[in-house]
């Protein structure tokens, strides 16, 4: 076969550009890939033009982005990415900016020595500042809505189906038309600052205006654990209940609207409290924020097997032992409270791991 010189020249140029591009890829990757995404798309097909309510079951659960609060790659993020891949969620893990010790001390001491002032312990202060940073990041990205998730959590394999019905219930609670005709339709309507979908318990009493619907994927009362077990016992079994927040704690997963991001910075940006979640909860309770709780929760913290005695980063920051190296326990299945069909354990071990 005769190849004219001219074509050889083109071929050489293409090869050269190709090599140039490949050799620059690591550089581009470093520059551009400040996030890691997964896009498994297993449970629902990709469709960018879903009607508003059904969009709550899309790859970002009907929010504009899912941002993960994380200090970097570890057993926490690896399991999280596996769970996201299994359930077809697109998550972004932005690098956390360094948090200076002097800032931690200063923030923890805001409010001074007044006896009425509460001060967060060291580890809780670091986590608090990290949450504020991530919310500022969401504001810089100019997001309409964001779902913020801590990196050691877990959810049910059916989370995308769960969220569509939760969105419908939130619309009912906020008296938003089921068929939103507004120019910016969103699955969850607009009448909220914060949706508390991942927590470690919430209070309830019968005076609360509550929207409940049957959900066989909700953790049954008999298997629900935690301090709020007693309150849950008054709600219908095998149901998901949605109401204005009263006393949710633990910031495992929460969504913020555009105005919610600013309002949380306003109420929690100045420290003075036990921890970020408690400060936000108090603002929800005082109606300084419009917060909605989902009970039982759809996101909960995963724990490595108890025998290894692994502490959370917040506890370690507060003075608890650093514990074993992750290589010792990462491959051993742990457990997740209150999640029937764990996505993390399914992805990593093909099993459920309800405690
Ligand atoms: C996406 O969803 C919309 C609204 O339900 C529907 O009309 C459209 O046909 C869907 N597109 C695809 C590719 O499935
Ligand atoms: C999911 O739906 C929300 C709300 O409609 C939208 O902002 C977001 O871009 C969608 N996510 C994806 C991955 O299409
Ligand atoms: C919300 O209200 C509509 C209309 O009454 C109803 O069809 C729907 O089932 C309700 N959704 C939930 C989750 O309660």
TrEMBL record:
Keywords: Membrane, Transmembrane, Transmembrane helix. The chain crosses the membrane at residues 6-24. This is Glycosyltransferase family 25 protein. The lineage of its organism: Eukaryota, Fungi, Dikarya, Ascomycota, Pezizomycotina.
């Amino acid at each position: 076969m005769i190849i004219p010189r001219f074509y050889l020249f083109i071929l050489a140029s293409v090869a050269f550009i190709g090599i140039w591009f490949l050799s620059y890829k690591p550089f581009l990757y470093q520059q551009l890939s400040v996030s890691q995404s997964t896009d498994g798309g297993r449970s629902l097909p990709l469709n960018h033009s879903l009607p508003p309510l059904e969009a709550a079951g899309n790859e970002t659960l009907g929010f504009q982005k899912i941002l993960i609060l994380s200090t970097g790659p570890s057993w926490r993020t690896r399991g999280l990415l596996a769970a996201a891949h299994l359930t077809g969620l697109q998550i972004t893990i932005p690098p956390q900016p360094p948090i200076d010790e002097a800032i931690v001390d200063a923030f923890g001491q805001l409010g001074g020595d007044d006896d009425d002032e509460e001060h967060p312990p060291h580890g809780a202060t670091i986590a608090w500042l990290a949450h504020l940073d991530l919310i500022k990041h969401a504001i810089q990205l100019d997001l309409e809505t964001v779902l913020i998730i801590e990196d050691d959590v877990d959810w049910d394999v059916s989370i995308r189906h769960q969220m569509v019905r939760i969105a419908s219930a939130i619309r009912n609670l906020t008296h938003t038309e089921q068929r939103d005709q507004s120019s910016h339709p969103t699955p969850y309507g607009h009448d909220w600052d914060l949706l508390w979908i991942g927590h470690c318990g919430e209070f309830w009493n019968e005076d609360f205006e509550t929207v409940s619907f049957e959900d066989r994927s909700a953790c049954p009362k008999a298997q629900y654990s935690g301090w709020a077990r007693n309150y849950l016992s008054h709600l219908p079994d095998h149901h998901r209940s949605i109401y204005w927040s009263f006393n949710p704690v633990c910031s495992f997963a929460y969504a913020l609207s555009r105005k919610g991001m600013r309002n949380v910075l306003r109420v929690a940006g100045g420290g003075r409290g036990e921890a970020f979640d408690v400060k936000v909860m108090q603002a929800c309770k005082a109606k300084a924020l419009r917060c909605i709780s989902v009970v039982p929760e759809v996101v909960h913290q995963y724990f490595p097997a108890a025998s290894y005695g692994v502490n959370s980063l917040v506890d370690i920051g507060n003075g608890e032992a650093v514990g074993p190296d992750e290589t010792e326990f990462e491959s051993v299945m742990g457990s997740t409270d209150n999640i029937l069909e764990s996505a993390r354990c399914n992805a990593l071990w093909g099993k459920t791991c309800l405690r």
